[in-house]
Structures are given as C-alpha cells and as structure tokens.
Write a structure and sequence with these properties.
mainly alpha, 2 domains, 5 helices, transmembrane, Sulfatase N-terminal domain-containing protein
Length: 137
C-alpha cells in the first residue's frame, strides 16, 4: 500500500487532533465492515456477516500505520497494511454519541437528532445500519 503523506503531528487539545482521531476511527470501522461483509469462500452464503468495530478517542497521530514511531498498535497496523488506509477522514462532530449516530445512519447530527452525549433521541425516521441489515435478513 502506498501512502501519499505521513500524518502531521497535532497538539493534544487541538480540534484537528480530535478530527483526525475520529477520522482514523471511522476509517478503521469502514475497513472492518468492508472486510467482514465479503462472503467466505469456504462457506458461500447470500447473507452478509457484519462485524462492526468502533474505537473511541483514538488519535491517528499515535498509530504506527500513520507514521508514529513509538506506537504499540500492531493489530491496527496489520489491518491497515491489508486494507485501505485513508489519509483524510472527517467526523461530523468531535463527540462520541452524535459521531457514532452519524456513522450508523449516514446522516449528519441535524438530521438524525443526536447533538450531544446527553439525552437526545434518534429521529424516528433515521434508519440505522442494524435496521437496514435486519431488513435484508
């Protein structure tokens, strides 16, 4: 796999660090979902097997696959070598619940209704990935 540029170091409290971390987490999630949805050659099936792995508060500039020399992330680094590595990923918001809600619905916070980690409720018309997959069997 060819990288076009190493990740730029960020400060611990910068918004860019949060966005890069969220982007790295979303990239790893997308990688896991795509890999998990491929049918097994040993057991062909018309149904998908999906494993969704999410990471919270993981910064791209602290992962070996993004150029950090002192990283202790061998499993993530190996997964990155076997799949697609994104250099520019963005989270719609640097807060866990609304960011995950966006990932699982494909909608931004104003459309799915989750704005904080508080008592917000998901919009009734926001279909989640779980509902979509359930509908497919």
């Amino acid at each position: 796999m060819t990288q076009t540029a190493p990740a730029q170091p960020t400060t611990r409290n910068s918004a860019r660090g949060w966005i890069l971390g969220g982007g790295a987490a979303l990239a790893l999630i997308a990688l896991a979902v795509v890999g998990a949805t491929l049918p097994s050659p040993a057991a062909p099936s018309t149904r998908w097997n999906v494993v969704l792995i999410t990471l919270d508060t993981t910064r791209a500039d602290r992962l070996g696959c993004y150029g950090y020399g002192r990283a202790d992330t061998p499993t993530i680094d190996a997964l990155s070598r076997q799949g697609v590595q994104y250099l520019r990923c963005y989270s719609p918001v640097p807060v866990t619940l609304p960011s995950h809600s966006s990932l699982l619905t494909g909608l931004d916070p104003p459309r799915h209704g989750i704005h904080t980690n508080g008592p917000d409720a998901l919009s009734a018309d926001a279909e989640t990935l779980a509902e979509l997959l359930h509908g497919e069997g």
